[in-house]
Amino acid sequence: MRRHTRARPWEIALAVGLTLAVAAGHLLDREAAALSNRVLRLHVVAHTDDPADQAVKLKVRDRVLAYAAPLVADAANPADAAVRLRAHLPALEDEARAVLRAEGFDLPARAEFTDMFFPTKTYPGFALPAGSYEALRITLGDGGGQNWWCVVFPPLCLAASGETVTQTALTGGLTPSQTDLITGKNEVYVLKFKCLEWWAACRTFFSG
């Protein structure tokens, strides 16, 4: 006759905890995806970690942001902004190469679009949680140096103050709750960012 064993309290608690963790993870996935779908990142990769290469990387960043700003100023959403920028990839490469030449660097520059994972990053006036984002990537030379990343649409990295960041985010299509999250007005944003990082790390680990 088969004997049934009753689950121990700690086993029940563990099962419930795992179930809740997975459910919370799926909710975080949806929230992160909803935010990333409203943001187009900019990723500039330096040739090497040499101080001169790192310094010129920032000058390229400024030139690319200045060139891109009027192109996406009235874009309806990140997808629209991406379409406009894709049509100007050769021009963006020319802008980057112009900076390199002016600074005495004989290096190529490549502009492309990619989907990539970004860690949590804090900027003046706002922060973005870890997650997968579409990005305009500018690679300088061999692309072996440290990189710089921000946001090309909405143009949050061009905002000069917290109030400007908020208005730029709302105008660019972020919801009020998403805007409060990235600007820190949502008091639980630190916990949410940490949870998003933890969940992303767990998925990466278990996927091999």
Task: Please describe what this structure looks like.
With 208 residues, the chain is α+β, with helices and mostly antiparallel strands. The protein has one domain. Helices cover 52% and strands 19% of the residues. It contains 7 helices and 6 strands. A hairpin with a 2-residue loop joins strand 3 and strand 4. Helix 2 (51-72) runs antiparallel to helix 4 (89-102). 31% of the residues are buried. Mean pLDDT is 79; it is low at 14-28.
Q: Indicate the overall shape.
A: globular
Enumerate the spans where pLDDT stays under 50 for 5 or more consecutive residues: 14-28
Order of helices and strands: HEHHHEEEEEHHH
Query: What's the number of helices?
Result: 7
Please give the alpha-carbon distance between the first and last residues. Answer: 42 Å
* Total tally of structural domains: 1
Structural topology:
Blueprint: H1 9-36, E1 40-45, H2 51-72, H3 78-86, H4 89-102, E2 109-118, E3 121-123, E4 126-128, E5 131-140, E6 147-153, H5 162-171, H6 176-183, H7 189-206
Summary keywords:
single chain, 208 residues, two-stranded antiparallel ribbon, alpha+beta, 7 helices, globular, 4-stranded mixed beta sheet
